[in-house]
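## retry 2 of 3
previous attempt timed out at serialization; input unchanged, resubmitting
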Amino acid sequence: MSVQVSFPGGKKVDARIGGFVIRSDQSERFGGEASAPEPFDLFLSSIACCAGIYALNFCQSRELSTQGMTMVMDCERDEAKKLVTRMTLRLRLPEGFPERYRGGIVRAMELCTVKRNIKEAPEFTVDLV
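## retry succeeded, writing output
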């Protein structure tokens, strides 16, 4: 797997993965144009989307309705360290969601690959070529 990064100008940084280009920019406060999410926002979004796809797959595999299902991820930060210290996923279940599946959907969301990669962090190296 490879991610190709390009620098189209200003504070913009684009990542190409597969056939997709993911654009990022910095806020105006940090010298960007705020034309796209900041990289850290994309990181947070990837966690929420990953947990969301596991919840969606859980429901779809059991032919459960997802109408009205929503999720919010709240983040608590240590401002001194500029790091997120807690992420809380709040899944609003569809009306009439069967009680017997409540634990199962939570367990499914716990399987999120992005979260697992954070918990078992990869080694990072930087090579100059």
